Amino acid sequence: MPSMNQCVPIRHLFETHLTVSDLRRSIDFYRDVIGLQLAFEAPQRNVAFFWIGESGCSMLGLWSIDTAPLGLTLHLAFDVLLDDLLGAHKILKASGITTFSILGEETIEPSVICWIPAAAIYFRDPDGHLLEYLTLLNEAPRPDLGITSWSDWLNIKDRAVRSEIS
Q: Which CATH architecture has domain 73-166?
């Protein structure tokens, strides 16, 4: 196995793919609900590609189950700004989408993964793929806290600030 200094340095993930049961429905979902820009569609191959963020930055490919070697339920996390994360529940709810915590419980607030730390809210696409809006928090990691709700995270931070002041 090569050592870390012998590996090619990776800057970021450029592309990932999902299998879908209804390509047109999924195109509509990822374009109209998620807000991704359709980059290319090849109807003869039952595939569509979307830009994630700016054109040329990252790409999502959607393949009709008919053209893919197998169907899986997969997970994707989209990096979003904190204000957008905190408002995501309302936007998704308006499209009839239920949001839930990292533990799979229905919720309107993000979960905080304290060892990173990052805040995230989860939902599913029409094929059941697990999607996540995630924001890295500019805080010190707190692995001792495990996973908590956004409101509990804010309370923990507030108590820490008050104890520093006293």
A: Roll (3.10)
